Amino acid sequence: YNERDNLPLLVWMIDKYLGAANIQYEIVIVDDGSPDGTQEAAKQLAKIYSEDRIVLRPRPRKLGLGTAYLHGLKHAKGDHVILMDADLSHHPKFIPQMVAKMRSGSFDIVTGSRYEGEGCGVYGWDLRRKVISRGANFLAQLLLRPGVSDLTGSFRLYKREVLQRLVDSCTSKGYVFQMEMMVRARHLGYSIGEVPITFVDRMFYGDSKLGGSEIVQYLKGLLTLFATT
């Protein structure tokens, strides 16, 4: 949503790193009616890289993160699907590492971790944002014990059928959705691998979408998962 300026650079980086690793790919772009011209930028990219590689599947308005994943999954052709943000906070250079991790360990899911492993970290956050993120992750670990170091991240590689089942089983929306995906995955017996990543806050490239309402929503979702799983 509103990623016109970031999308061209993101696509270029994906093409660079996946091309160097000989990984075949397509990019499915789900845009929820951005008023800033994101769809026009995506159409221009499709002309440059081909419509087989850049697949634009817009929606008329914001309809929730979970339904956006379902919408994109419906149009994806591959057996493996990577979910990532378009705001440059998720660097495509980690994708080949995630693919290698999945292949080497026969994992069902590989998630990027900001909190565990050599070289991981977060850049661009002020103290308040760090405290919120660490606190949210700590509470989730304490209450849910999912066995995954980074529950609130969204940079993940899934086997297609695993992603489909998880999205179908989840009920949360917004930021809670990422946490519920990992909790449901553990309960369903899926194996999860982790790759350390560096996360760069979108404050360098645009406006953060995290606010007080999202924090309240997260806490409510956390308590709901604790009570129902």
UniProtKB/TrEMBL annotation:
Pathway: Protein modification; protein glycosylation. This is Dolichol-phosphate mannosyltransferase subunit 1. Transmembrane segments: none annotated. Pfam families: Glycos_transf_2. Component of the dolichol-phosphate mannose (DPM) synthase complex. Keywords: Endoplasmic reticulum, Glycosyltransferase, Magnesium, Manganese, Metal-binding, Transferase. It catalyses: a di-trans,poly-cis-dolichyl phosphate + GDP-alpha-D-mannose = a di-trans,poly-cis-dolichyl beta-D-mannosyl phosphate + GDP. Transfers mannose from GDP-mannose to dolichol monophosphate to form dolichol phosphate mannose (Dol-P-Man) which is the mannosyl donor in pathways leading to N-glycosylation, glycosyl phosphatidylinositol membrane anchoring, and O-mannosylation of proteins. Its main location: endoplasmic reticulum. It comes from Macrostomum lignano. InterPro entries: DPM1-like, Glyco_trans_2-like, Nucleotide-diphossugar_trans. The keyword Transferase applies. The keyword Transmembrane does not apply. It comes from the Eukaryota. It is found in: Endoplasmic reticulum. Signal peptide: none annotated. Its EC number is 2.4.1.83. PANTHER family: DOLICHOL-PHOSPHATE MANNOSYLTRANSFERASE SUBUNIT 1. Residues 1-166 form the Glycosyltransferase 2-like domain. One of its GO terms (biological process) is dolichol-linked oligosaccharide biosynthetic process. Belongs to the glycosyltransferase 2 family. One of its GO terms (molecular function) is dolichyl-phosphate beta-D-mannosyltransferase activity. GO terms for cellular component: endoplasmic reticulum membrane. Its cofactor is Ca(2+); Mn(2+); Mg(2+).
